[in-house]
Write a structure and sequence with these properties.
The chain is of the alpha+beta class. It is 53% helix and 17% strand. It is elongated and about 90 Å long.
């Protein structure tokens, strides 16, 4: 009887301890994943770069062109999409701009609304601005997204999206 009680106590003690440690380990795993995601953005030499997406909301990604780590121009059967890794989107896009995209997995995908995302990313990354023809981009934003332009110009009065007489033309130089 004494031996049975000792066995029971040890078993229950170890079981409860394991449950506590598993919850703690799961918490540690989530935190490590968060740090790795942020690390790829801020310290890619240590954590590695973001891998391009394999799938999009419109199907399989057939090809991709990296614009910057975590930002890819993708080709799908229906055309081109801009894929922005969620870590980049959370840090560099307003909630309004991100709402124009569609999240799938770790990426936010933009179709013709890539104009909004590229515009916002261009203010943070000179490499993105270098592949954009800004007057046609402004014209596209004003024509297709007047509510966004009003929102942006209201909150960013120092550098508003200017009115332009640029002709309708492709704004992406790739």
């Amino acid at each position: 009887m004494q031996e049975d009680l000792a066995l029971f106590r040890e078993y229950e003690t170890l079981r409860r301890s394991l449950e506590r440690h598993e919850r703690h380990c799961e918490s540690l795993r989530r935190r490590l994943a968060e740090l790795e995601r942020s690390g790829k953005l801020l310290l890619p030499k240590y954590f590695g770069e973001f891998l391009p997406p394999q799938r999009s909301p419109e199907g399989k990604v057939l090809a991709w062109t990296p614009l910057l780590d975590g930002i890819f121009l993708t080709d799908v059967a229906s055309g081109r999409l801009l894929a922005v890794h969620e870590a980049v989107a959370e840090r560099y896009l307003t909630a309004v701009a991100a709402a124009f995209g569609e999240f799938l997995g770790e990426f936010c995908f933009f179709d013709e609304s890539m104009a909004v995302a590229l515009f916002e990313l261009s203010s943070a990354f000179p490499e993105i601005k270098a592949v954009l023809d800004m007057p046609p981009l402004y014209a596209t934003l004003r024509r297709l997204y007047p509510a966004y332009v009003a929102f942006y110009n209201d909150i960013c009065r120092t550098v508003p999206i200017p009115a332009t007489d640029a002709a309708e033309a492709p704004f992406l130089l790739l």
